[in-house]
Amino acid sequence: MASSQQAKSSKSAHGLLTGLAVAACLLAGLPGARAQAPSKQPPAPPRAAPQAVPGFWDPRRRPERPDLSRLTVIRFLTETDYPPFNYTGADGNPAGFNVDLARSLCEEVKVTCTVQMRRFETLVDALTSNRGDAIIASMAVSPQLRARVDFTDPYYRVPARFASRKDAVMPEIRPEYLEGKKVGVIAGSAHEAYLKAMFTDAELHGYPNDDALRAGLRKGEVDLIFGDAISLAFWINGTDSGDCCAFSGGPFVESRFFGEGIGIAVRKGNDVLRQALNWALFRVWEKGRYTDLWLRYFSVSPF
C-alpha cells in the first residue's frame, strides 16, 4: 500500500439511499492508495444544508446470512491519524467513521470486536502476519492489493467534483463548457488523467498539493479546480476557504480512472470473515445505522 503522501496524490433519508446507490457510485483515488482525508482535524460544523446520503448497496441483492458460528472475535486494524475516518479520541481510544462502523459491524455479527491503530503503511503486513483479522482504514481497492488481500464489497466511494469561486458557479459542467477555461488539478493524479482524457479543450494547470491547488482558486489563478469531492466539501464549508468558493456541476464517478471503492481487507482466502462483513454491512445500511453514521461525520454533501 502506498504511503500517506502517495495516497494524497491518488486518493437517507433511507429511501433516498436506494435511488442514489449505483448511479452515484463514487471515486476512490489512484489504485493502491487509501482515500484522501479531508483534513488533519475533525471537520468543523458545516454551514451547508442537510445532505442526502449516498447508498452503496442494492436492496435487490440481499446477501444471505452466512454461518457465523466460527467467528468469536474480529481484530480490526486501522490508521493512526486520518481524521475524520480514524484518529485518537479525547479519551485516548480509537475514534472516527471507520472505527464506529467497525463497532457497528461487530454488534450486528454479535462477536467481540477490538480496534488497533497502526501506521497506514504497516497495515497490510500486520494483516498478512496474523496480527489482525481485518483492515478498516479507508483503503482503496486495487489490483495490486488484491494480489495480497481479499476485500469486502465497497463501503464507500469518493466522487470527484469541480469547485469554482462563488461568483462563477456553473450549475452544469460538460467538456464543451470548459473550452479555454483554466482548470487546476493535482499534477500526476487520477483527476488530472481524467481531465486530459475527457476535457481536452480545457487549459490544465498542475499543482503539487491540495494547499497550492486551493490557493490558486482563491487567488484567481484558475477558473475551477477538480479533485476529491469529500475533501473539497470540508474545505468549501470550513474556515480555510474564507467562504470563497462552491461546487460547480455534479459528481463524476468513472471507476476506470478512480478505482473500485473503499473496502475492508481480510487475509487471502478468509471467506468466512469476508462474507460475514458483507452481510453485516448490508444489515447496518438496511437498518439506517449507516445513514446515521455518515451524517454524524459527513454532514456536508460531496454530491
Automatic annotation (TrEMBL):
Pfam families: SBP_bac_3. It comes from the Bacteria. Residues 34-64 are annotated as: Disordered. Keywords: Signal. SUPFAM superfamilies: Periplasmic binding protein-like II (SSF53850). Residues 73-301 form the Solute-binding protein family 3/N-terminal domain. InterPro entries: Solute-binding_3/MltF_N. PANTHER family: L-CYSTINE-BINDING PROTEIN TCYJ, MEMBRANE-BOUND LYTIC MUREIN TRANSGLYCOSYLASE F. This is Transporter substrate-binding domain-containing protein. It comes from Bradyrhizobium cytisi. The lineage of its organism: Bacteria, Pseudomonadati, Pseudomonadota, Alphaproteobacteria, Hyphomicrobiales.
